[in-house]
Amino acid sequence: AQKVTQAQTEISVVEKEDVTLDCVYETRDTTYYLFWYKQPPSGELVFLIRRNSFDEQNEISGRYSWNFQKSTSSFNFTITASQVVDSAVYFCALGQAGTALIFGKGTTLSVSS
Amino acid sequence: GAVVSQHPSRVICKSGTSVKIECRSLDFQATTMFWYRQFPKQSLMLMATSNEGSKATYEQGVEKDKFLINHASLTLSTLTVTSAHPEDSSFYICSAMAGGLNYGYTFGSGTRLTVV
């Protein structure tokens, strides 16, 4: 069975702090995709990144970076120098071509000024 | 990029009435759409998978007679909540696959349903 675990329910940081959101996944498939989404209070899902199972390169996009490690089935997300606008719920998700995404329970990030 | 338009964004209805939510893929053909439900402070839970021209596949525990899904064209899927009750109040969001080499999902902006 496929499963996504986000063990951190809530995280609170002060602006400019770095924060890492953890994601651990379970799947028996060799080909799969991992995603991170941001959900602000308005509710819409904002796509952040997609990574396929054959690409273990870490990625950096501005203040965001992702660490994909198949050996530990983890796909962690780090925000560097956090800002108040980063406050949101962040979801990690797992999927395969043709199937629905399975979401973790989400991590609520609160960044205070 | 691929865009999914979802309407309405917010709806309040009386208990016992039905509500229809539409999701349209604007610039691509979506043979498959997924419908999710999200209760406050919870994750997105898959309700059903909708395939164009065929019956939807519902997840365990989701009443197919209560949540009617129609996917009559490659660009439109609808979810109708029939005889809505307060416990159906939730955030409903659709997702379409934009396939090919740029495999990925596009989500609608969601519908917040409140049943009073």
Molecular structure report:
- The complex is a heterodimer of chains A (about 110) and B (about 120).
- Chain A has about 110 residues and is an all-beta fold.
- Chain A contains no helices and twelve strands.
- In chain A, the strands form three sheets. In chain A, strands 2, 5, 6, 10, 11 and 12 form a six-stranded mixed sheet that branches. In chain A, strands 3-9-8-7 form a four-stranded antiparallel sheet, with no helix packed on it.
- In chain A, a hairpin with a 6-residue loop joins β10 (about 90-95) and β11.
- Chain A starts with a strand and ends with a strand.
- The mean pLDDT of chain A is about 95.
- With about 120 residues, chain B is mainly beta.
- Chain B has strands at about 5, 10-15, 20-25, 30-40, 45-50, 55-60, 65-75, 75-80, 90-100, 105, 110-115.
- In chain B, strands 2, 4, 5, 6, 9, 10 and 11 form a seven-stranded mixed sheet that branches. In chain B, strands 1-3-8-7 form a four-stranded antiparallel sheet, with no helix packed on it.
- Chain B is globular, with a radius of gyration of 14 Å.
- The termini of chain B are far apart.
- The mean pLDDT of chain B is about 90.
Roughly what percent helix of chain A? under 10%
The global form of chain A is: globular
The proportion of strand residues of chain A reads over 45%
Quaternary status: heterodimer
How would you describe the shape of chain B?
A: globular
Distance between the termini of chain B: 37 Å
- The total strand number of chain B stands at 11
Percent of residues in beta strands of chain B:
over 45%
How does the major sheet of chain B shape up? 7 strands, mixed
Biggest sheet of chain A: strands, sense, closure? Answer: 6 strands, mixed
> Low-confidence parts of chain B lasting 5 or more residues at pLDDT below 50?
none
* Number of helices, where a helix is a run of at least 4 consecutive DSSP H or I residues of chain A: 0
- Secondary-structure element order of chain A, as H and E? EEEEEEEEEEEE
Tell how many strands the DSSP assignment of chain A holds: 12
Total helices of chain B: the number is 0
> Structural class per helix/strand content of chain B?
mainly beta
Gyration radius from CA atoms of chain A, angstroms: 14 Å
Distance between the termini of chain A: 41 Å
